[in-house]
Amino acid sequence: MFRFKQFTIQQDRTAMKVCTDACVLGAWAQIEAGTYLLDIGTGTGLLALMAAQRNPNAQIDAVELDEAAAQQAADNVAASPFADRITVHQSAIQQFYPPSAVSPSPLRYDHILTNPPFYVNSLRSPDKAVNRALHTDELPFADLLVAVRRLLAPTGTWWVLLPPPEMAVLRQLAAAGSPTLVPVTELHLRHHDQKPVFRQLVGFRFTDSSGNVPGPVNPAILAIYEPDGRTYTAQFRALLQPYYLIF
């Protein structure tokens, strides 16, 4: 169990537990202005719940392939103050269509949040749920991009979290496809100032109708700890203060 200030995450039935980098994504992604949000691979429901806390006007669809994880996410949502604004769907994102997609104007999302599986050729776990959560077998980057291009509004933002090598691959695929998705903001996360970046958080948007591509993004850097490896930095505390009980 992981208690936040406004909700609690039960995680005994999910392979992907609450982790610091996912919490940073949920606190950093600038989703306050959107009305319709999508969380791809919601797991425990963490990102959907963080988004609901930050944006009181948001209606959120949270999609999860694993049946046990989807049920746990639904239970976490039901026990939260945001149950009327989050709907959990047990589905592969490749087959997911928004509930209003039967209308003449299919719903597109203002923001999409994704903490995707990223291991490609790594050693597999005996646990199928762990493999599904961590490895790209059932959600390759190419499939993820097809889904994002189908579901993201023309002026929407896709927020994604990956290790640097995998993010480099995703950037290339996003730039090569059509319509092109390009980074417009990013945050690099490291344990402390003497450690290398271990996660990159990027906001992607479509290029505009004239094909203009924004210049290189100057990433912000966030260290979780001071050099002692135990004391949280002021920047990390400020970012997570709305969520973490210890702050």
Automatic annotation (TrEMBL):
Keyword set, alphabetical order: Cytoplasm, Methyltransferase, S-adenosyl-L-methionine, Transferase, tRNA processing
The keyword tRNA processing is annotated on this UniProt entry: yes
GO biological process: methylation; tRNA processing
UniProt cross-references to CDD domains, sorted A to Z: AdoMet_MTases
EC top class named in words: transferase
Entry's Gene Ontology cellular component terms: cytoplasm
Tagged with keyword tRNA processing: yes
Membership in a protein family: Belongs to the methyltransferase superfamily. tRNA (adenine-N(6)-)-methyltransferase family.
Protein task: Specifically methylates the adenine in position 37 of tRNA(1)(Val) (anticodon cmo5UAC).
Protein name (database record): tRNA1(Val) (adenine(37)-N6)-methyltransferase
Lineage of the species this protein comes from: Bacteria, Pseudomonadati, Bacteroidota, Cytophagia, Cytophagales
